[in-house]
Structures are given as C-alpha cells and as structure tokens.
Amino acid sequence: MLDKLGDSLKGVLKKISQSIFVDEKLINELVKEIQRALLQSDVDVKLVFELSKRIKERALREEVPGLTKKEHLINIVYAELVNFLGGEGAKIEIRKKNFKIMLVGLYASGKTTQAGKLARFFQKRGFNVALLQTDIYRPAGFEQLSQLGKSINVPVYGDLSVKDSLKIYKKFEQELSKYDLVIIDTAGRDALSEELIKEVRELYDYVKPDENLLVISADIGQTAMFQAEQFHANCKITGVVVTKLEGTAKGGGAISACAATGTPVKFVGVGEKIEDIEEFNPPGFVSRLLGMGDINALLEKAKEAISQEDAESIKKKMLKGDFNLIDLYEQMQAVRKMGPLSNIFNMIPGFSQAAIPKDMLSVQEEKLQKWKYIMDSMSRKELEEPDSVGFERMERIARGSGASIKEVRELLKQYKQSKKLVKAFSGGSSRNMEQLVRKMGKMQGVKGMKLK
Ligand SMILES: Nc1nc2c(ncn2[C@@H]2O[C@H](COP(=O)(O)OP(=O)(O)OP(=O)(O)O)[C@@H](O)[C@H]2O)c(=O)[nH]1
Ligand SMILES: [Mg+2]
Question: Which fold has domain 99-281?
C-alpha cells in the first residue's frame, strides 16, 4: 500500500540516521525530499509546504533533553506526518441501540462494497446488523448488496418496485428498528449533480444517521477535498471511507485532503473482498509507511518522556481504588511502553523499596493483542463493570472477537487479580501487601519475589 511514498520517506529517515551532524543543511535537504515524496503522492501543494515549514521550524528551534538531535528529528517527522493525516484518528463507536450509518458518494466509489464490508466488520464485533439498499437507479445494486449480505448472513432490505429512496426507507423503518446497527447504501452519480444532492439530503434529513460516511476512491487524490466540501455543505459528513487504497499511489493525497477539511478518514478499503477494510489510525498508518520496525527503538526512547504522565494517571487511579478493564488495558500498554512496572511502584509512597521483578505484570505482545480484540467486542458497560459479565455474555464476546471462551475468561481473571492488587495499594497495610505480592508472584510463576 502506497509503497512509493513509503520508500521515499524511509529513504529520508535513513538519511537522518546515517548523517553525522544534524544541521540546517541536512534539514533543508530532507524537507525537500519529504516535499517531493508527498507531491508524487498527489498531496496538495499548499498542504505540502505548510507541513514542511512546520517540520523545518520545529527541527531548527526545538531541543528535547535526553534525545539526540537525530532522534528528535525523526520524532518530529513522524509526529507531523501523523498530525497531517488526521492526528490520533477517530473510531466509530456504536454508541446506542439502533445506530445508523449512511454511505454517500459519487458513482462507483465503492459504497455498496463498503456497506458489505462494514456489516462484516461490526458483525464480528458482536452487533446485530442489517443492510438497506436505497439505490433506485441501478437495480443491480440491490442484487449486489443481497449477495454480500448473504455471504455473511446479514439480512438485506430493499424494494425494486419503489422508485423513491425515502419511501423505501420508510417502508422498512419499523423492521429495521430492531437491529443494533443499520447500514444504509445510497445511489451514486457520475457528477455531483443538484438532483443527487437533493435526494441524498432528503434521505439524510429524515434518517438523521449517527454516522454519515462519504465514500471516496483513493485514486481521485487531492480532489477528494472538493468532494468532501461539497457533500459536507449539503449533508453533514461525519467521516470518510477511502477505498481502493491498495491500488493507487495517490492515497496520500486523498487522505491528507480529507484531514485538511476536518473530515476524519475513519476506514480505508484495501481490496475487493469483504474482509478488506481497516479502521484508519494515523499513528499506525504512518508507522507502517515509514517502516517503523527499524527506528522504533529510537521512538520508544522519545516516548519515555511522555510515559511519566501515564504513570501519574495510573497511580491516581490505583490510589483511588477504582479500576476497570479499560484501566487494565491502559496499564498493560503503559507498562509495555515503560518497561519496568517499578516506575509506577516507585511513585507510590511506601513502596519505593519494593523489589518486584520487572516482568511481573508484563504480558506478551500476542496476548495483549488478543485481549484488545476481546475488549473491542465488549460494550462500554461491560468494560466498566467486568464483574457483571456472565457466561452468556462471555459467549457473545468470544464470538464477536474470534477468541475462545477460555481466553475471555482468562482476561477477566487477570482483571480480578489486578484489581486485588490495586485494592491492596489503596487501602492495605504493608503486611497485607507483602502477602499479596508473594501470592501474585506465585500465580505468575515469578520466583524470588520479596519486599525489602
Ligand atoms: N481494489 C479495490 N476495489 C474496490 C474496493 N472497494 C470497492 N472496490 C471495487 O470498486 C467497484 C465499485 O464498487 P461498488 O461498491 O459497486 O461502488 P458503488 O459506489 O456502490 O457504485 P454505484 O452504486 O454504481 O455508485 C467494484 O468493482 C468493487 O469491487 C477496494 O477497497 N479496493
Ligand atoms: Mg452501489
């Protein structure tokens, strides 16, 4: 995906790491290379210059204690690119019962295909999904969506005899209200005509979708900005799905254009198959683009400065004694980021002397990933009150996340253990604490655990 842009940017990073001095000359050179790479990827010229100006200014001005100039420079390039593509990213949360997602866009942008992909995406996360076809101009659209629905066992609604998309919606409105999520496909056109706008707006005004996603094909590059603005002016776009990203060099242009208009890219389509969709997450995307594996070590070092803050907030939670699964997940991630759990322990009065093996709460990457899938399949309430999750819900969560019930149970068990530990922190005497630490050590097979 976007191989060429990735290669050019990797070249830039390599140049930084191989240079002896970071001086103005080097900065100028690499800013030029970044500009070239982005322009080739069809990013808008004005945006390219704004970005390179920011990188240059920061590189010349800022200094970060504890980081070499090279490390800092790599960090700036990474952070500015992430920011350029939309910052932290915006996930779609199915926030309420009978959530509605509407897909709009020009002809052949990939609306119908993404409707199927999104149905699959959310079905896997445990939601009861239905699809609705409102395209009255292309009768084949109903058949196409029906096929997609059938392949994943999701019901598809539509009526070819009704020649008005709003009427189709109204006809099935009652029935659709029983689903967790309804995904509404709409008709496309080969230009953004008045007629299209009027029809989409009518449907939009009535349905009031929770998410109104503009589907854009990546190969249109920076003209995505124009489309996003046009649609936005008529029916509020809450996000963009950029499709066919795997097949074009212009994806960078499409994505950055959307980010610049303030409409976050929420998903990217990366193939014709129903599984070929990904939540768009700028940090992950940029990491892949840059081949972060190689320079990750450098970045980790930069992040340590931030992890002090994470540690601070975890400490607060621990001392307060409230601790749910979301906290556990954040904690596991922070611990992974920081390495030693002792960083946290050291900050808690009275426990600075605790000789706790560094790997006590560390979990392997793989397991953490699995747990993340499981947690993604849980509702907010279940995450906040994990004790309320009974067997039936475990089954649903397992189904939604592709994990086994055993794995779900294991996660909940880990949560209970951690919660005990937290309780001991917040209220327990040091004697209780000592016993507990020993017990935890035994449970996790860590030898030689003792409090000094
Ligand atoms: N390579 C690739 N092809 C895609 C992707 N998404 C959709 N397509 C293809 O793009 C073509 C058009 O997709 P549709 O989903 O029919 O597009 P549409 O917007 O519904 O089209 P209309 O309803 O006619 O406006 C199909 O051949 C899809 O297989 C993608 O992410 N990658
Ligand atoms: Mg279609």
Answer: Rossmann fold (3.40.50)
Domain with CATH 1.20.120.140 in the chain: 3-84
Q: Which CATH number applies to 296-451?
A: 1.10.260.30
CATH architecture assigned to 3-84: Up-down Bundle (1.20)
Q: What is the pLDDT of residues 294-306, one digit of tens each?
A: 445 445 544 443 4
Please tell me if the CB atom of residue 110 comes closer than 6 angstroms to any atom of ligand 1: yes
- CB of 219 within 6 A of ligand 1: the answer is no
Half-sphere exposure (Cβ direction) of 434: Cα atoms closer than 13 Å: 8
Note the pLDDT tens digit of each residue in 82-124: 898 888 888 899 999 999 999 999 889 999 999 999 999 999 9
Distance (angstroms) between ligand 1 centre and the Cα of 272 equals 7
- How many C-beta atoms surround the C-beta of residue 26 within 10 A? 18
CA distance 186 to 107: 10
Atom index in ligand 1 nearest the CA of residue 106 equals 25
111 CA to middle of ligand 1, Å? 6
The Cα–Cα gap between 269 and 451 comes to 53
What is the reported pLDDT for 379? Answer: 81
All CATH 1.10.260.30 domain ranges of the chain, comma separated, are 296-451
**Residues, the chain:** 452
Confirm or reject: Cβ of 269 under 6 Å from ligand 1: yes
